[in-house]
Amino acid sequence: MGVIDLAVFLFFILTGLFAGYLFGSISCAIVVCRLLKLPDPRQQGSKNPGATNVMRLGGKKAGLLTFAGDCLKGVIVILLARLLTDNQWVIVAAALGAFIGHLYPLYFGFKGGKGVATYVGIITLLQPLSLVVFGLTWLLLTFTLGYVSVASLVGALAVLLSAWWLGYTNAVLTLFVIMTGIMFIRHRQNIINLMNGTENKIRRKQR
């Protein structure tokens, strides 16, 4: 690859990353809470603008709407990228941009969620089998342990291991490695809470 070709390639990579970031910066948690007249999720509960916190604040309907919206961000970005190019590195760059935009939204003071819903949308479009791996792991751990954070992180690790085992392309595997690493960083407080025994469960224990 010559210097000019490399420069063009990097231009498209950065363009995809930036465009994905702008779209991913739409915080569905905040939008849903405003539409349903719920408290700002950045100020209440866990103070995380994500589906789990919104569900605690407004119930299952609000939580599902938030999850669906954040998931669709990853789906839509990849679909649009595929309409413009068949270069997988550019497509995954756009997907990564949407993921980062969800975590650090430009329009909402860079205070975003932890990335799980957008992650689900991304893996669904890139490798549908990964959704099966993540979904089964998430359901099993959520309903046995009750910790959404544990289910999400172990699910992401399961997806990463299966991607490596099944020989996914370097572009997709690189994206999965980056997203998994960022998810662990974003869940660091949850990990500390788990170690201290103070992590919230998705359901209350029966008394």
UniProtKB/TrEMBL annotation:
One of its GO terms (molecular function) is acyl-phosphate glycerol-3-phosphate acyltransferase activity. Its main location: membrane. Pfam families: G3P_acyltransf. Keywords: Acyltransferase, Cell membrane, Lipid biosynthesis, Lipid metabolism, Membrane, Phospholipid biosynthesis, Phospholipid metabolism, Transferase, Transmembrane, Transmembrane helix. It catalyses: an acyl phosphate + sn-glycerol 3-phosphate = a 1-acyl-sn-glycero-3-phosphate + phosphate. One of its GO terms (biological process) is phospholipid biosynthetic process. Its EC number is 2.3.1.275. Coiled coil: none annotated. GO terms for cellular component: plasma membrane. It is a multi-pass membrane protein. It comes from the Bacteria. Pathway: Lipid metabolism; phospholipid metabolism. The chain crosses the membrane at residues 6-33, 62-83, 89-110, 131-159, 165-185. It is found in: Cell membrane. PANTHER family: GLYCEROL-3-PHOSPHATE ACYLTRANSFERASE-RELATED, INNER MEMBRANE PROTEIN YGIH. Catalyzes the transfer of an acyl group from acyl-phosphate (acyl-PO(4)) to glycerol-3-phosphate (G3P) to form lysophosphatidic acid (LPA). This enzyme utilizes acyl-phosphate as fatty acyl donor, but not acyl-CoA or acyl-ACP. Probably interacts with PlsX. Belongs to the PlsY family. This is Glycerol-3-phosphate acyltransferase.
